[in-house]
Specification:
Number of strands: 10
Bound molecules: adenosine-5'-diphosphate, magnesium ion
Distance between the termini: 32 Å
Order of helices and strands: EEEHEEHEHHHEHEHEEHH
Number of domains: 2
Helix content: 25-40%
Low-confidence stretches: 253-257
CATH superfamily of the largest domain: P-loop containing nucleotide triphosphate hydrolases
Shape: globular
CATH architecture of the largest domain: 3-Layer(aba) Sandwich
Mean pLDDT: 89
Structural class: alpha/beta
Strand content: 15-25%
Largest sheet: 6 strands, mixed
Number of helices: 9
CATH class of the largest domain: Alpha Beta
Radius of gyration: 19 Å
Amino acid sequence: MALLEIDVLSKSFGGLQAVRDISLAVDDGEIVSLIGPNGAGKTTVFNLVTGYLPPSSGRIRFAGRDIVGLKPHTIAGLGLVRTFQITNVFPALSVFDNIVAAHYLKARVPLWKTWFRDRAVAAREATAHAAAEEVMGFLGLGHRRDMTAENLAYGELRLLELAIGLGAGPRMLLLDEPAAGLNTEESARLVTLLREIAGTRGITILIVEHDMNVVMEVSHRVVVMNFGEKIAEGSPEHVRQHEQVIEAYLGRGFEDEAPATPA
Ligand SMILES: Nc1ncnc2c1ncn2[C@@H]1O[C@H](COP(=O)(O)OP(=O)(O)O)[C@@H](O)[C@H]1O
Ligand SMILES: [Mg+2]
């Protein structure tokens, strides 16, 4: 059984069908990319899967459990964690504290419990701190440990988002355009990190990305959407040569599409 199973999923906004009969399965440890022109419905799929929007019809299962109707924080608590572009970073908190905060979000410890520093609280805090140190080391953010997020360079801020996602202890990560705005060197580094996250850490990844170099290098499988529908699916090589895919991207330069503005 796949870790994430999306079954004939649809979403309409008034008369606009943003997502139409999308079925998609992501296996444990896989990296799957969701690509398509702007307005194709990619972000809507993410919003449906993470509980930010109710589907018009269709089913979504994570680890065998029906997650339609669950609240976003409940879905995150199950281990299906989404990173947002910048928006879930606390600008005035340090890198370290941002990652620790992500851990507590998942743990959902009532704040009052932290007022009484009993042994369980102290142990949990030690665990959260150790996990944050580990994630910083892994992403190469250790030297930025005590810098406030607002003072980070753009590329490092994008890494912090990834750190916050990892800090929540996910089983699966949904990444919305993690390479947007990164320079060539930073994108190459991101590719290595994503491979390690899936390969070594065993975290499954579904990624929406416009940078085709990143998509082609990290994906085990690529799913292509256009006007709400799935128009192709397969290996990076397969979709690269797929006629409908090339058509959907025609005039946009499939090989070297400029990063789109984040939606
Ligand atoms: N909350 C919303 N209300 C109305 N229309 C929406 C909403 N979200 C997305 N749309 C529309 O649905 C379509 C798909 O959008 P989106 O999923 O953001 O595409 P993508 O992420 O592939 O660029 C677009 O036409 C967009 O304008
Ligand atoms: Mg989008």
